[in-house]
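Let's sit down with a protein and look at its sequence and fold side by side. Once you have written the record down, we can walk along the chain together.
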Amino acid sequence: MLPDVALMVLGSFAPLFTRPVWEHVQVLVTGAILCRGPRTVASVLRTLGLAGEPGFCKYHRVLSRARWSGLQGAKILLGLLVAVAASQGFPLVILVDETVERRKGRKIKAKGRHRDAVRSTQGEVVKCWGLKWICMALLVPLPWSPRPWALPFLTLLAPSKQADEKAGRRHKTTADWTIQAVGQVSRRLEAAAFTVVGDGARASVALAHACQARRATLVSRLRLDARL
């Protein structure tokens, strides 16, 4: 069982779920903290000694069928992280980047060929099949670390151009998804100013204007052909 302090923090997310689902969520979170290796539902149940649980499928349904809003959960988590940063007088600095989750299955509709940042070098670009996720993290100072930690609070799935064309949707670029995420953060922080830090993919005039309109400062790499 989690300590009372952890349960108090975790309780902030209780309104997102129904009472039966909330009971299963607490079990999954506890197992995910204690679990080693890949944090699958099966691994979590084995860690907690529930490998022989007759109704094990109800834990899988938390992620597959239960209705709850990940966006609302991200807003609650951001509020908790901002409270920690504000209590120590730390500025609100949000990092944004993308990561590729390698996937090849035929039923994965949003997959595409993306640049593999781990295997690519300056002279060679390696691409792989997978899902591209846009991730936003807040820099938060922690008492046991001399440097602040980037704690993620929001992830957005960015379907590939081929997947959007096949589904008949308008394709959104990395900058478009970042603009949408900055808008969500701005509404959650209300009147608070914050700084957005990203790599060269965020060197976008549209993103800079969007940040300026939302009391945000954009820090990104400057394009070599930028007109100052």
User: Anything to note?
Assistant: The first strand starts at residue 93 and ends at 102.
